[in-house]
Amino acid sequence: MLVIRSAALEAVAVKPAQYPGEPLPEIAFAGRSNVGKSSLINLLVRRRDLARTSSSPGKTRTINFYRVNDAFRIVDLPGYGYAKVSRADSESWGPMIEGYLAGRPQLRRVVLLLDARHAPSAQDLQMYDWIRHYGLGGLIVATKADKLSRSELQKNLAMLRRSLAAGAEEKILPVSALKKSGADALLAEMEAILEAGAAAPPEAKDAE
Ligand SMILES: Nc1nc2c(ncn2[C@@H]2O[C@H](COP(=O)(O)OP(=O)(O)O)[C@@H](O)[C@H]2O)c(=O)[nH]1
Ligand SMILES: [Mg+2]
Question: CATH number of the domain that 102 lies in?
């Protein structure tokens, strides 16, 4: 069981020169603004306020690197899909994310967060295509599961799986930061990802 003993913000970056230098393995988290990404990161590391949570979405336009156990990093990618950001901000988002996905050899996986209540947006689908393109897919988190009944949740997990055309090997894990549920299953996946990476470094990720 992955036990998080320490977690600290190590770097806030808008360009690769600002990424941390030490090649620790990284697991990144992506999703629409307000999907619950900061809340989930805080739940994983059991800190109320490591990643800032906000009821005014769209503010995080940086890539935030959290160093965990001095062994790996959780990387908070900037949220997308919020209308009220400046044009300059929305134009810098794509290159910022792609620069990270394409140019970060120690990146092991990108966890895509989707709201358990809703069908994925066009941008969610595009994001997941991108994640798959770089060979970093296979783990999806359905957030805010507390907002659904058990049967609605089961129905929506199946809907998300169909919408993403996700295969049986791809995992979709429900979580609730409010009820503090789902973190253990996600931490177990993260541990497996980190161990697999240590055993056999992946091949070049953008090979055709
Ligand atoms: N009911 C419920 N609300 C949540 C949950 N996670 C986050 N929220 C709320 O959703 C809003 C956005 O959360 P935040 O973590 O800042 O989202 P981010 O923009 O993706 O980082 C906040 O008002 C949170 O309190 C959850 O599991 N359940
Ligand atoms: Mg956030």
Answer: 3.40.50.300
Tell me the CA–centroid distance for residue 207 and ligand 2, in Å: 32
- Residue 208 falls inside a structural domain: no
The per-residue pLDDT for range 4-63, each reduced to its tens digit, is: 999 999 999 999 999 999 999 999 999 999 999 999 999 999 888 888 766 555 555 899
Task: Note the pLDDT of residue 82.
Answer: 72
Cα four-point dihedral sign 139, 24, 38, 78: negative
Kindly report the pTM of this predicted structure. 0.92
Structurally, the chain folds into a number of domains equal to 1
Of 1-5, 27-31, 152-156, where does mean pLDDT reach its minimum? 1-5
- According to DSSP, the β-strands at 63-68 and 107-115 are unpaired
- Closest ligand to C-alpha of residue 78 is 2
Mean pLDDT, residues 159-169 = 96
Backbone angles phi, psi at 140, to 5 degrees: -120, 140
Choose among 172, 117, 141: nearest CA to 44.
Answer: 141
The residue range of the domain holding 87 is 7-199
- Best residue among 37, 39, 77, 111 to mutate for probing ligand 1's pocket (most ligand atoms within 8 Å of CB) is 39
**114 bridge partner residues:** 142
Under DSSP, the state recorded for 173 is E
Strands (DSSP E) contained in 1-88 are: 7-13, 26-31, 63-68, 72-76
